[in-house]
Write a structure and sequence with these properties.
The protein is α+β, with helices and mostly antiparallel strands and about 230 residues long. The protein has one domain: outer membrane lipoprotein receptor (LolB), chain A (Clam), CATH 2.50.20. About 20% of the residues lie in helices and about 40% in strands. It has five helices and 14 strands. Strands 1, 2, 3, 4, 5, 6, 7, 8, 9, 10, 11, 12, 13 and 14 form a 14-stranded mixed beta sheet that branches. Strand 12 and strand 13 form a beta hairpin. The protein starts with a helix and ends in a 6-residue tail after the last strand. The N terminus is likely disordered.
Length: about 230
């Protein structure tokens, strides 16, 4: 997962009154010179505090990544082989922090960043929810977000993952700006200028559900065998 795709999974808004489990399906598209570079990548995400599951969309019995920050574990599920690879969580965290640190540098979104927020004149209906639009501008990046105020999900829901991944530090200026937005972002368009070239990513949530998640989603199936991760460290 590249830095901007990972960032799109972290863009939550104002703090909610309490923690909520949330499931959403999201399509992320990358644009080059104003043209879509492909049909887009569909992701499915289950989030329950210190437990998280990510899957590619449009697949039945496909691979999945399970993060158990509460237990200091991570698993990569391989359904065809009925195995669960035990991932080195420290190495995974180091990669996430490196990617998000790079994203923060490119976007000028660190602690001292001057970030401006402005309301967009028109709203949208996305995934059945009425959304308000906002533009968040930094030194070399612009985010346009459409947020759904009626969803009881906010940055407090993702606090553990933001801290673990390093986003709370690398993107602190941006995260603080997003805290002020009145809802959960269902569409995020990022435009980043790197060496004079504009890189653009559009992420759209097509389905979202707030409510208790099945605990079995965050465990390897009992029939799977556990195997060590033989991938070499970068």
């Amino acid at each position: 997962m590249n830095a901007f795709a990972l960032l799109s999974l972290l863009l939550a808004a104002a703090p909610a009154a309490g923690a909520h489990d949330v499931y959403f399906e999201q399509t992320t598209m990358v644009f080059a010179q104003g043209q879509a570079a492909g049909p887009g990548v569909v992701s499915r995400v289950w989030y329950a505090g210190r437990r998280m599951r990510l899957e590619p969309g449009g697949m039945t019995d496909g691979p999945a990544l399970i993060l158990r920050l509460d237990e200091g574990k991570a698993y990569r599920l391989d359904p065809p082989r009925k195995r669960a690879v035990v991932v080195d969580l420290d190495r995974l965290r180091a990669r996430a922090q490196m990617d998000l640190s790079l994203a923060g540098d490119l976007m000028g979104a660190g602690e001292d960043a001057r970030v401006r927020t402005a309301a967009l004149p028109e709203g949208k209906t996305i995934a059945g929810y009425a959304c308000r639009g906002f533009r968040v501008s930094g030194a070399s990046a612009v985010l346009e977000l459409y947020v759904a105020p009626e969803l009881p999900v906010g940055v407090s829901t993702f606090a553990d993952f933001l801290e673990w991944s390093g986003a709370a530090q690398s993107l602190s200026g941006l995260v603080e700006a997003l805290r002020t937005l009145p809802g959960f972002p269902l569409e995020t368009r990022s435009r980043v200028t790197v060496l004079g070239e504009v890189q653009e990513t559009l992420s759209t949530v097509t389905r979202v559900k707030v409510g208790p998640a099945d605990p079995r989603l965050f465990e390897p199936p009992p029939s799977y065998r556990l195997e060590p991760d033989n991938e070499e460290a970068p």
